[in-house]
Amino acid sequence: MTAKTTAVPAQVRTRVHVPLSFADGFTAEADMVTFRGLTDGGEHLALVLGDLSSPDVPLVRLHSECLTGDVFGSARCDCGAQLREAVERIAETGGYLLYLRQEGRGIGLYNKLDAYALQDDGLDTYAANTALGLPEDSRNYTAAAQMLGALGVSEIDLLSNNPDKEAQLSENGVGIHHRVTTGVFATDSNIRYLRAKVDHTGHTLTLAG
User: Fold this and answer.
1) How many angstroms separate the CA atoms of 52 and 166, rounded?
2) 84 catalytic per annotation
């Protein structure tokens, strides 16, 4: 499939095979791909998963880095659970997981923890960012479109609940065949966070109550 992204072209830098093993025992085989020429200069990764000769349109997840959730299993968000789910679903169908170094919706780790402290005082996740003088969500997915272009991908099934990801990819010339919703990983610790995503930014999550 020839890429038609309107983003400035990037190139594949390296591709290396990495077996993956998760805490619950799930394993998968992945190729990790690095890039040169990404517009934001970030060290973003693409994980190539499953049999790419099988699907007409690959399943793709744009996953923003979350150290607290992805590594430490924080229950204040659903990031770790979404990452684990995405790897399995993409490995089953064939596609790509783009791991984007955009901690805290782009504000960084320390600021994210400062925002957590404000959330403990009653602010939601977006209001906390604003109270710190930061954008509610500063993530830009131009680099993701560049990565897909470098991989030769122009049309995808997007595994996401976030309409902004679909809009930004489309603006950068990536065709969205379908947007596929993720699971819902609600806990007592993250339900306010998830509800804010639904109410404030239109995430397609079905929450009880």
Assistant:
1) 22
2) no
56 as an active site residue: the answer is no
Catalytic residue among 137, 157, 164, 199: 137
DSSP 86-149: HHHHHHHH-EEEEEE--GGGGT-HHHHHHHHHHHHTT--HHHHHHHTT--S-----HHHHHHHH
Residues 162, 203: contact at Cβ < 8 Å?
yes
* Cα torsion angle, 36, 39, 175, 205, sign: positive
Name which of 2-16, 44-58, 157-171 the model is least confident about: 2-16
**Which range has the worst mean pLDDT, 110-119, 185-194, 197-206?**
197-206
Question: Which residues have a Cβ under 8 Å from the Cβ of 200 and sit 6 or more positions away?
Answer: 124, 126, 136
Strand 59-64, strand 45-49: pairing: unpaired
* CB-count exposure of residue 11 (10 Å: 0-12, 13-18, 19+): exposed
Residue keyed to tokens 């009653």: 122
Q: Which domains does the chain have, with CATH numbers?
A: 11-102+186-201 (3.40.50.10990)
Catalytic residue among 36, 139, 192, 195: 139
